[in-house]
Amino acid sequence: MEKPIIFFSHSSKDKDLLISLRNKILRKTSKTIEVFQSSDGESIPFGNNWIHKIEHNLNDTKLMFVFVSPNSLKSNWIYFEAGYSYSKGIKVIPIGIIGIDIGKLAPPINLLQGFNITSYEGLNNLITIINREFSTSFSEDFNVDDYEELISRSDIKLNINHFFNNVDYIKTEFSSKLKDNIQKETAFDDVCSFLKDKDIKHTIDGKNRIYLHGMVILKDSEKFEFKIDQLKLDENLKIINSLFDIVYENGIGMYYLTIHFTEETELMTTNFKLSSRLSNIGIEMSNKYPSLFEYKNILFALDDNLDTISRKSIVGKSLRVVYDIKNCDVNEIYELINLLFEQKLIWTKN
Prior knowledge:
By secondary structure, the chain is of the alpha+beta class. It is 31% helix and 24% strand. The strands form 3 sheets. The protein has a 9-stranded antiparallel beta sheet with strand order 7-8-9-10-6-11-15-14-13. Strands 2-1-3-4-5 form a 5-stranded parallel beta sheet, with helices on both faces. The two termini are 49 Å apart. Mean pLDDT is 83; it is low at 40-47 and 306-314.
């Protein structure tokens, strides 16, 4: 009995990522499924007629995954393969990868029912479809490590900002009343000198306000306040982390950000419900800080101004992130936001 064939349509520039995914699927299905990939060096042996081999396998396949990436959008090849397959009655499913949202693409691709791979759950969608189309029962148990290993093979830096339209702004403060630490008396002037010395573009408004690209710094008698646009989080967080040694007399290990969401965004802030749903995906409460949860190298909590048992005054709905200043990976914050939306722990009102 011949193996059922899945055809991977994609850009050759995404070859390494798709080879890795192909191998994962072959292992998951114990090689009872054949995956044809024209750029893998195995599906088409050297010396064979490339176009003829592709056409032959398209005739034999029943299912095509069209991987739409920034690379493949620059080429018309996936449209040729998808159109040819659709005309032959093959099941064609577009899949957005590396930041592409299928729902925002123009016809004809967005007329086909597809999905985006923005987490390990997207990988499990592949197995769900294989089981449905070929009447199999393979385990849908891809995990976070599988997803991260996969995206690490992309030649495009992944910016997981699929849900960032729901973020209003990001904020943090340098309090003058920080425990066991004191702000330097010359802190504001020292910050201005640092920005000038590092040739960071900025404008000083009077004696208490600094504007940068995507960030404003306000200094009053109690604190420094930083408000950041989400699209400039990466570069501005690096600046903020450099300012701790400028502002404070002693070093700081951990600090926090609050990510504030738009009015139409809802959060699950009831701790016992939140802990239940997070534990189902392997995220546990911190042993050291019981009100916080652990995700990789960061701690976090969901806060709402309607939460009467919150320990501190919260304005609006926000995700509080506690991170290691010396070991901060903004991609982990992007991933966390993505994951919380996908798990319906943050959602938008209909």
